[in-house]
Write a structure and sequence with these properties.
Layout: H1 4-9, E1 14-21, E2 24-25, E3 30-31, H2 33-39, H3 43-48, H4 62-72, E4 74-82, E5 88-100, E6 103-112, H5 114-143, H6 145-156, H7 162-177, E7 181-186, E8 197-204, E9 215-217, H8 223-229, E10 233-235, H9 238-241, H10 246-249, E11 255-263, E12 266-275, H11 285-324, E13 328-332, E14 338-341, H12 343-348, H13 373-380, E15 384-393, E16 396-407, E17 417-424, H14 426-448, E18 452-460, E19 466-474, H15 476-482, H16 486-489, H17 494-497, H18 500-503, H19 506-516, E20 520-526, E21 533-541, E22 547-556
Helix pairs in contact: 6-7, 6-11, 7-11
Length: 560
C-alpha cells in the first residue's frame, strides 16, 4: 500500500495500525506523523511500542476492548493516553479490524477529547447556573404575575382601534410602575439628515401638550440612551443619573424606564414611562423584565397590524392581477366544483361558479387523463406544474399548460381547495408539433442521403482566431465513408481525429467559409489518416451558428 503513509499523514488525528494475535496486540506496524507529533516518541522508539505502552494504565481494559472488536468489528472507546514525557490526556478512539500485510490488524484513530470534556464541564456548570437563575426568576415572576395577566388581557382583548390597544398598554404600565406618563414612540431618521427623531405614536399624560404626532430630536429624550445601548435604561433620579440631559434640564423629568420595541427584528422605537418626580427605590429586575415583556407584546401587535395591512394590500393586488391576466384561474373543491374563477376562466373555459372544470381533457397523444392535475394536487398535497392538456372545442382542440396547487384554508394540515391555472399554449403546441414533424423529416433525409453530411461548430482561440472545428452532426453515409460512428465523432475536434485536413488544405477552405460566410465547393484529394480518396465537397456556413455544414462524396475509390 504505497499510498498509505501519505494518506495517514494527511489526517489530523493520530492513527495507529497494529497486529492483533491470539497472544494480544503486537508492536505498531504503521502510524502517521500526528502520532510522532502528539506522543513525543521517535520513529525508532514507536516501532518497538505496543498500544498498551501509550494507553494510561487503568484507563481502558484493552483485553475487553479487543474482545469487543473481535465481536462487532468496529467500536469507539474513551480513555486516557500517555505521552513519552508522562503527560496524560483524554482521547476518544474509533477502532476497527482490518487486514493489513496479510495480518489481522487494528486500525485505531485517536483524537484528543480535552475540548469536548471541558465543554461538557462548562455545560454542566452553565446548567447549574441556569437552574439557579430560573429558580430566582420563577420567584420574581410570581411577584408580578398579576401584571402579566393584565398585559395578556390587553393583548387578547378586542379593541375598537389599534390606537385604543396601545393606549391600554400605556395606561396599564403607568399603573404598574406608578409613573404618570407613558409613551410609545417611533424613532425614524430625520428627513433633513440631522440624526434620528423621537415621534410620539401613543401617549398617556396629564400634560395635553404631549400628544400623538409630537416630534422632537431624539437627543432631547431620555430614549436616546435606549436607542444607543439597544437595551432597557432606567433612571431612579435623572438629576443624579443624567444631570445634563435636556429631558432633565429643560423638561424637568426625573424618573425614567424605557426599552426598545422591535418589529420583525427591526427597531421601531421605544416604550417608556417617566415622571417629573424621582423614584428613590429605583426599578427592580422584575420591573425591567415587565417593561421588556410589554415591549415584546407591543412589537408583535405592531407586526400583526402591519401584516394585516399588507394582507389587505396583497389581496387587492391579487384580485387585480387575477382579473386582468390572460390565464384562466379557478379555485376547485375536492368534489370538482368551482368555488371561484376569474374573467379569463369564464371566457376561455365557459365557467360559472359552481360549474365543474371540463372533464374531457386529453394528453398529447389524444388519450383521456386518468387523473386531473387538481385532483392529484389535492391527493398528494403538493403543487403539480406544467401539465399539457387538450380540451376539445368547436371541432378542434385548445391546448393548455395546466398547473394546480393545493391550498390549506383552515391551516389544519390538509388541503381544502386547489388553485388551478390554465395557460393557453395552443399556438405554441401547434408550432412545436410542426417542429417535431420537420425534425423527423430532416432525420429521414439525413438517413437516406447518398452524400456524407456533417455539421461543425467553430473552436476559437483566446484571440478569436479559428483553431479547430467540433462535430455537431454526422449522418449514416458519413459514418460509412469515415469509418467512425456518430457517437465517436460528435463532440470531438476535427484535427484530433483527422489531422490530415490541415495538410490536404481542407481546414483552410472550411475556415474561409466561416470567415467569409460564403458557400464553397471544391474537389480535393485526401491521402491521409488511412484514406486515399478524392472528395467532392460542398461547405455552407451556418447562419445562426458559428460553424458550417459540409456534404461530401468520393469521386475516386480508395487505392488498394
Amino acid at each position: 500500500m504505497p499510498l498509505l503513509p501519505s494518506l495517514l499523514d494527511a489526517l489530523g488525528e493520530s492513527v495507529f495500525v497494529y497486529p492483533l494475535t491470539a497472544d494480544g496486540p503486537m508492536p505498531f506496524l504503521a502510524y502517521n506523523q500526528a502520532v510522532l507529533d502528539t506522543y513525543g516518541y521517535s520513529d525508532e522508539e514507536l516501532r518497538e511500542l505496543r498500544i498498551q505502552d501509550v494507553v494510561n494504565p487503568g484507563a481502558l481494559d484493552l483485553d475487553d476492548a479487543h474482545d469487543r472488536l473481535r465481536e462487532i468489528r468496529e467500536s469507539t472507546f474513551e480513555s486516557e493516553h500517555r505521552r513519552k514525557n508522562g503527560d496524560t490526556f483524554p482521547v476518544q478512539t474509533t477502532a476497527r479490524l482490518i487486514e493489513y500485510d496479510g495480518q489481522l490488524c487494528v486500525l485505531a484513530v485517536s483524537r484528543s477529547d480535552e475540548d469536548r470534556r471541558t465543554f461538557q464541564k462548562d455545560v454542566l456548570r452553565a446548567n447549574l447556573r441556569l437552574e439557579r437563575t430560573v429558580d430566582q426568576r420563577t420567584r420574581d415572576l410570581q411577584a408580578f404575575a398579576d401584571d402579566l395577566r393584565i398585559l395578556h388581557r390587553i393583548t387578547t382583548a378586542e379593541h375598537d382601534t389599534r390606537e385604543a390597544r396601545y393606549q391600554a398598554y400605556l395606561e396599564a404600565g403607568c399603573e404598574m410602575f406608578g409613573l404618570p406618563i407613558g409613551i410609545l414612540s417611533e424613532t425614524p431618521e430625520a428627513h433633513e439628515g440631522d440624526g434620528q427623531v423621537y415621534r410620539l405614536d401613543a401617549v398617556v399624560s396629564p400634560d395635553p401638550d404631549l400628544a400623538p404626532g409630537l416630534t422632537i430630536p431624539l437627543r432631547e429624550a431620555f430614549c436616546d440612551r435606549v436607542i444607543e445601548t439597544g437595551g432597557t435604561v432606567t433612571y431612579a433620579d435623572a438629576a443624579t443619573d443624567a444631570p445634563d440631559h435636556p429631558a432633565c434640564v429643560d423638561r424637568g423629568l426625573r424618573a425614567f424606564i424605557g426599552t426598545p420595541v422591535y418589529v420583525a427584528g427591526e427597531l421601531f422605537g421605544t416604550v417608556n414611562f417617566v415622571s417629573p418626580d424621582p423614584r428613590p427605590e429605583g426599578f427592580s429586575e422584575s420591573e425591567v423584565e415587565l417593561i421588556e415583556v410589554m415591549a415584546a407584546a407591543i412589537g408583535r401587535q405592531l407586526h400583526l397590524d402591519r401584516s394585516e395591512a399588507e394582507s389587505r394590500r396583497a389581496l387587492a393586488w391579487y384580485r387585480s392581477v387575477v382579473d386582468t391576466t390572460d390565464a384562466a384561474i379557478a379555485v376547485v373543491a375536492p368534489d370538482g366544483s368551482v368555488r371561484a374563477s376569474n374573467a379569463a376562466a369564464r371566457d376561455v373555459l365557459g365557467l360559472d361558479e359552481a360549474d365543474a372544470l371540463p372533464a374531457s381533457r386529453l394528453t398529447r397523444d389524444g388519450k383521456p387523463f386518468q387523473e386531473q392535475p387538481e385532483a392529484q394536487a389535492l391527493r398528494e398535497g403538493r403543487a403539480v406544474r406544467n401539465v399539457l392538456q387538450g380540451i376539445p372545442s368547436g371541432g378542434g382542440t385548445l391546448w393548455f399548460n395546466v398547473s394546480a396547487s393545493p391550498v390549506d384554508e383552515d391551516f389544519d394540515g390538509d388541503p381544502d381547495v386547489a388553485m388551478v391555472v390554465f395557460q393557453d399554449v395552443t399556438s405554441l403546441h401547434s408550432a412545436t408539433a410542426r417542429a417535431e414533424r420537420y425534425g423527423q423529416l430532416l432525420a429521414s433525409v439525413l438517413d437516406a442521403s447518398l452524400d456524407g453530411l456533417m455539421a461543425f461548430r467553430t473552436v476559437r482561440g483566446a484571440d478569436g482566431s479559428i483553431v479547430d472545428f467540433e462535430w455537431m452532426l454526422v449522418n449514416p453515409r458519413a459514418e460509412q465513408i469515415t469509418g467512425y460512428s456518430a457517437s465517436e465523432l460528435v463532440g470531438r475536434r476535427m484535427l484530433d481525429v483527422f489531422p490530415g485536413n490541415r495538410a490536404a488544405g481542407f481546414f483552410d477552405m472550411y475556415r474561409r467559409v466561416v470567415e467569409t460566410q460564403e458557400r464553397a465547393s471544391f474537389e480535393q484529394h485526401y491521402p491521409h489518416d488511412g484514406l486515399d480518396v478524392t472528395f467532392r465537397v460542398v461547405a455552407t456556413p451556418l447562419v445562426k451558428e458559428d460553424g458550417f455544414t459540409v456534404s461530401f462524396t468520393s469521386v475516386q475509390q480508395p487505392v488498394s
